[in-house]
Amino acid sequence: MNSLSICYLPAQWLALDEARRSESVCVVIDVIRATSTIAAALAHGATGVRPVASVAEAEQLKAQQPALILAGERHGQALPGFDFGNSPRAMNAETVAGREIILTTTNGTQALAACRGARAVMTCSLLNLTATAEKLRALGAPWIVLCAGFEGDFGLDDAIVAGALAEALDEPSSFTALYRSVRGDLAATLLGSNAGQELVKIGLQNDVPFCAEIDRFALVPVLDDGGVLRAV
């Protein structure tokens, strides 16, 4: 068995044998934009990011803990009454330092909810690619990458990042060739993906070049026992 496996949809992860899931480190990728937003928030001083699957759960947590920042989107659009949408560019020190964030998104937080029960859970984006590979080596195999996909379908953008991570780990993957074929212009390729085009439609395309930066941050968001992603 290879040390690294890649699921390109949460349904593939859930179809795996429970014993295999429990022995593996699960790495969630939703490069446009959830895992990029999480990395940016923690890099700029957020104390943690609490991913939740549903809008109702996010609103309930906010009601119980008003000091928490409420962030999220559905189909790219910021949610009414939320403090922020899902833009990594909005996660700066002035807005998030010293505070915990509740985050709910169309794809990324659904994937995070699916992979509970793994030996460890972390998130990866291009922004923290090398740091993720180093953390995976430290934790030891087996590793399973879970691509969030795009509204229940294959997401080209996440597959590219999965290929980049496989290359960083020196592990065989069909997605590595995909990454190598487009790495000369990652921003344009990500912008052309379904997720990128969704942002174009709503005028948020400037998030994509930010998400396409490699190794901007040297941290890894890891899910703790309380269900909060912390920087390590």
Global shape: globular
Strand order of the largest sheet: 1-8-2-7
Residues in helices, as a percent range: 40-55%
Order of helices and strands: EHHEHEHEEHEHEHEHHHHHEE
Structural class: alpha/beta
Question: How much is the average pLDDT?
Answer: 97
| Estimated radius of gyration | 16 Å
Strand content: 15-25%
Unreliable stretches (pLDDT < 50, length at least 5) are: none
Largest sheet: 4 strands, parallel
Description of the structure:
With 232 residues, the protein is an alpha/beta fold. The chain contains twelve helices and ten strands. The chain has helices at 10-15, 18-23, 34-43, 55-64, 93-96, 108-114, 129-139, 156-169, 174-182, 186-192, 194-201, 207-211; strands at residues 4-7, 25-29, 48-51, 69-74, 77-78, 100-104, 120-124, 143-147, 221-223, 229-231. The strands form three sheets. Strands 1-8-2-7 form a four-stranded parallel beta sheet, with helices on both faces. A hairpin with a 2-residue loop joins β4 (69-74) and β5 (77-78). α7 packs across α8 (156-169) and α8 packs across α9. The two termini are 28 Å apart. The mean pLDDT is 97.
Secondary-structure map:
Blueprint (H helix, E strand, L loop, with lengths): L3 E4 L2 H6 L2 H6 L1 E5 L4 H10 L4 E4 L3 H10 L4 E6 L2 E2 L14 H4 L3 E5 L3 H7 L5 E5 L4 H11 L3 E5 L8 H14 L4 H9 L3 H7 L1 H8 L5 H5 L9 E3 L5 E3 L1
Parallel strand pairs: 1-8, 2-7, 2-8, 3-6, 4-6
Antiparallel strand pairs: 4-5, 9-10
